[in-house]
Amino acid sequence: MNNxxxxxxxxxxxxxxxxxxxTLVTGVLYxxxxxGVAQGLFGHQANGSEIRADGRVVGSSLIGQSxxxxxxxxxxxxxxxxxxxQGRPSNGLGANSVNTRYKLILSGATNLxxxxxxxxxxxxxxxxxxxxxxxVPGYTVKPxxxxxxxxxxxxxxxxxxxxxxxxxxxxxxxxxxxxxxxxQVEKLVEDHTEGRTLGFMGEPRVNVLALDIAxxxxxxxxx
Length: 223
Description:
This protein is mainly α. It contains six helices and five strands; from the N terminus they run ααββαβααββα. α4 packs antiparallel against α5. It is elongated.
């Protein structure tokens, strides 16, 4: 009986010591080490890849934003502010009082199949809007020129980037709305076009937030 109690106490003591040591190593020391390395070598990424403008954080280079006009009375959705480059659609998991465009608590794809009638209608409506919004005097967008990322959301619904083709399609409209020379806006897109990661992964892309911040600066300098 005494041996059983002694062995039990010994095992409980060993287990408690192991718990304390493992808690210290894996719950305190290791997280501190990883955090220190991340802050020291990858501070920008570790802090959320923040983008600053006018002395404040305006967003993250990893998460898309909306560029809309104030919501009009009686309207369910706001109109796009066409002075700015627009990102991809953000259909994601749908919209309700807490899941709205680029403010999704849960990110994700629509999970609609390519032949789903709802998705087909969304793409058709989005293409018509892209053609209408980006056609300005002297430049008419053809439906065949609308790239896929202009009418479909990404897997997360929060894609911060668009294709160079979609950015180029918006150049005439942005230049006209901001009274800017077309060549300057084209140069802005060119300067903010990133190539494939490491030269072979992914596709060339343009970060919409970074591009619109640069556009704001150009407008302020020019106008």
